[in-house]
């Protein structure tokens, strides 16, 4: 018996013991369903297409790849799980293949029975006693067809050229394993640009609609940014050892820069580490602005007016298309930095897109509005000036002449009193100098820890958590230069956090002196120090 229909799917086997290959149903754009074998890689479903025409594959894996593209094996884009290609077959495709085989087998059996009776009819054609008349040739039912739909987010890996589609934010290319979150956010930024352009084409009579479109675009930037950080953080949690301690639910931690930093500090990484001080200030203001737009109909509230110098309580917060695009650019810089972290430091391919406009920190409120303990206004101004002018964040010496030049409107007695206030509260160290009204001044680490968040928009109390995690991962001796290199931070940002950490270690184990760039050359860690540092960092994590 021949199985003509089944044999059309034969890819191997001998005789009637056939090995069949059933083509997978495809979407209108030619992609096939894939289903992650990792049960926790929600939503598991993704689509896999062909490599884009003309893309030149490298002969060896690039630094960002984890799997040679075009070779057996598939990678789950949501979890990074690598498995055999067959392990990713979608259950619906298995059922579809079974139905195709059943249809072909039924057609073959029907045809075989018809042929058998037709042969008998011919054999007994001249017999007077037995008449066999076969029925008409059977017409098989149409072959089963299966609809497959494309997904909303379609991507092309810029490392291997593979076309694929995903439901949610995915992390990796399913062919080469390269991190691809930068592609997701680039697409979000493109959609935001289109919204801004659409708003810009509306006339003055449609100003309210234009404002609504710009508001939606602004919210979309932060929504995509927050979702990206959350997705990467949750993925990193899955890479921890099985006995790792539980963490608090994420909630809206990534709607706030410092809380987001503390989350990623668990892995010794600062997602905002690549941003300049100005870029970080612009990002901070836009995150605060999103709250006003999304929850207060664009009306400035008291919290927002505390941070935005040009905002007035009760008035509508202005939205400018260029500002929204710059916000998206800064978020993309951060996402690219995170993407490189997933690729062990290898940056994603650059598209050389020029910035919308220069990144300049928004004007800040008058420093005198800041209140720190019982310090007077002049003392606060001096502390902010000291923090802003410091190049290394070390215990700089400040001469009387520098101070009087920086504050010409204050008398010598007023300056001396303000310096005494700062010294009294531990922000400065002073010593007597012959023939000088103002004592010799040296800056204490406490000044940077307290005033850096206001002066240069970095927070040593947050950064020190990252340093502690890095230090605890090292051996008994921690060298300052190695630790600094691991952070990738500018020296000005690193030193206050390092000094803060060193202050928690027994001074007998601190390697003091021998360097002009750091508070110390390093330190030794004993078990009791590790306990103290861990508890210190846990308190700051909140």
From TrEMBL:
Tell me what this protein is called: Uncharacterized protein
Superkingdom in the source lineage: Bacteria
């Amino acid at each position: 018996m021949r199985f003509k229909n089944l044999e059309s799917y034969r890819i191997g086997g001998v005789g009637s013991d056939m090995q069949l290959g059933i083509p997978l149903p495809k979407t209108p754009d030619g992609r096939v369903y894939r289903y992650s074998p990792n049960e926790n890689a929600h939503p598991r479903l993704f689509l896999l297409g062909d490599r884009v025409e003309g893309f030149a594959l490298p002969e060896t894996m690039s630094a960002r790849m984890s799997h040679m593209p075009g070779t057996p094996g598939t990678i789950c884009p949501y979890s990074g799980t690598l498995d055999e290609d067959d392990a990713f077959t979608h259950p619906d495709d298995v059922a579809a293949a079974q139905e195709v085989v059943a249809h072909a087998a039924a057609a073959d059996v029907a045809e075989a029975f018809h042929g058998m009776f037709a042969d008998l009819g011919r054999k007994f054609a001249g017999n007077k006693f037995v008449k066999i008349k076969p029925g008409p040739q059977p017409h098989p039912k149409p072959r089963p067809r299966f609809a497959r739909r494309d997904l909303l987010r379609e991507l092309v890996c810029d490392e291997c050229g593979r076309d694929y589609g995903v439901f949610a934010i995915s992390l990796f290319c399913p062919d080469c394993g390269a991190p691809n979150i930068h592609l997701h956010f680039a697409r979000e930024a493109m959609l935001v640009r289109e919204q801004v352009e659409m708003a810009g084409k509306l006339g003055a009579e449609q100003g309210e609609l234009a404002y609504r479109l710009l508001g939606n675009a602004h919210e979309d930037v932060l929504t995509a940014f927050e979702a990206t950080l959350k997705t990467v953080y949750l993925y990193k949690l899955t890479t921890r050892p099985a006995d790792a301690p539980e963490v608090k639910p994420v909630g809206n931690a990534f709607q706030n820069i410092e809380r987001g930093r503390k989350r990623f500090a668990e892995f010794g990484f600062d997602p905002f580490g690549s941003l300049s001080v100005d870029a970080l200030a612009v990002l901070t203001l836009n995150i605060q602005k999103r709250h006003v737009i999304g929850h207060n109909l664009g009306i400035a509230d008291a919290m927002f007016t505390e941070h935005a110098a040009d905002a007035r309580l009760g008035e509508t917060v202005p939205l400018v298309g260029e500002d929204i695009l710059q916000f998206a650019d800064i978020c993309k810089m951060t996402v690219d930095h995170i993407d490189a972290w997933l690729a062990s430091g290898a940056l994603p391919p650059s598209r050389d897109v020029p910035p919308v406009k220069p990144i300049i920190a928004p004007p800040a409120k008058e420093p005198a509005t800041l209140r720190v303990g019982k310090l007077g206004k002049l003392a606060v101004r001096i502390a902010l000036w000291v923090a802003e002018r410091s190049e290394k964040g070390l215990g700089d010496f400040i001469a009387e002449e520098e101070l009087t030049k920086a504050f010409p409107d204050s008398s010598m007695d007023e300056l001396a009193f303000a310096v005494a206030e700062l010294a009294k509260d531990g922000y400065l160290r002073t010593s007597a100098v012959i023939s000088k009204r103002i004592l010799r001044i040296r800056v204490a680490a406490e000044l940077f820890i307290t005033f850096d968040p206001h002066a240069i928009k970095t927070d040593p109390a947050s950064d020190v958590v990252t340093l502690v995690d890095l230090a605890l991962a090292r051996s008994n001796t921690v060298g300052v230069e190695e630790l600094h290199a691991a952070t990738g931070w500018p020296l000005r940002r690193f030193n206050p956090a390092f000094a803060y950490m060193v202050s928690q270690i027994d001074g007998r184990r601190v390697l003091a002196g021998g360097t002009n760039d750091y508070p110390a050359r390093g330190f030794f860690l004993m078990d009791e120090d590790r306990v103290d540092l861990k508890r210190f960092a846990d308190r700051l994590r909140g």
